[in-house]
Amino acid sequence: MIESLLVANRGEIARRIIRTAKRLNIRTIAVHSDVDADLPFVTEADEAVCIGPANPAQSYRNVEAVLAAAKATGAQAIHPGYGFLSENAAFARTVASSGLVWVGPGADAITAMGDKINARNLMAAAGVPVAPGTAEPVADVDAAVAAVGEIGYPVMVKAAAGGGGMGMGVAADEAALRTEFGKVQAFAERMFGDGSVLLERYFPRVRHVEVQILGLADGRVIALSERECSVQRRNQKLVEEAPSPAVGPELRERILSAAVKAGEAVGYRNAGTVECLLDPATGEFFFLEMNTRLQVEHPITELIHGIDLVELQLRIASGEDVVVSNDKSGHAIELRINAEDPKRFLPGPGKVATWVEPTGEGVRVDSGYAEGTTVTPHYDSLMAKLIIFGTDREDALAKARAAVAGFEIVGPKNNLPFFAELLENDEFLSGDYDTAIVSRMRKGVR
């Protein structure tokens, strides 16, 4: 087993990784920017190193600074969490070549899945369903217009190097396509240094369902179960639940089988997620992308399976054989508590004057902040994850309502009022909802 671990991340995910590592008697090292010095993850680690100023490019994305901290502290392994350097293949390769253990998939798998066009083509060749779309980057907007002649409108315009809901636009006709193509291309060049654009059929009513996979040390790939991630704003998730209310036994078998094929196609190792779009009208599903890292929403899978995914990551990275049961029970829901207003979801950072977390049976809070700390504008607005486990969906929903009412945050803006509203929304309560549910709830909001 790994004996010392540097966590190359911040906030709630760094704190969550540190918690498991400590339980396994692994020495933990936190790296942090100067503005994060007072956050709980820094004080809870066995050792902490300041690696630069607030700008992520000079701290959390600074490969040289992270590696220097690992060397100075004698770290044996690096866990990247999610975001920042977690899906940076060059970083993963450098970690391995430096003699350190990389807690994640190999650099080749990250590279293969990082380019959405390459990933799409690999999945199609492996027999994983993909939506109608382009197999190669679209050269220019005129080529895009021609390609849609075969795909059909509406169409999703996507940055080939994008992910996490960034770099996407929808076009219902040629005029919109010409506008969205230019916007997505410019955004992709600015954010990812790669302006390649992919086109895919857009499904107006669709659900976002994903599967947790594990690539084991012996080469096998297993799929645990699916998560529903359709409550989104700006194509980014706000609520996840497991199992999905839209997936029955027959569909579950098909989607898990496809996820295993996806992992096997790239020789996947460690934890990963295969994301799919599900057409609720037909039961068809299509590969969307593979996230080559731990997901934000991993706790709901942990709760219904009774496992610790970070522990499994560490054991797999250590070369250990692990036995994972696919048995599951109950229902779990995760609410992302963000520092943003609950109407338009615009960021609202600030100093935390009051922070009171809910407690009770089936209630778990993975938080990155505490009373007296400050949510700065330099990073993602996620402050905490409120995770609920119940005997069934109704039980989980009831516990979630009570937990939201018992969570008190004063200082930064927060979206707890939105969750209180969602948990009384008939469409959400029915389980028959799709990715446009938040847009319908907020239609007309200024």
From TrEMBL:
Keywords for the protein's UniProt record, in alphabetical order: ATP-binding, Biotin, Ligase, Nucleotide-binding
One MF annotation (Gene Ontology) recorded for this entry: ATP binding
Segments forming domain Biotin carboxylation: 1-443
EC number: 6.3.4.14
Record-annotated ATP-grasp domain positions: 120-318
InterPro entries (alphabetical): ATP-grasp, BC-like_N, Biotin_carboxylase_complex, Biotin_carboxylation_dom, Biotin_COase_C, CPAse_ATP-bd, PreATP-grasp_dom_sf, Rudment_hybrid_motif
Pfam family, one: Biotin_carb_N
Protein name: biotin carboxylase
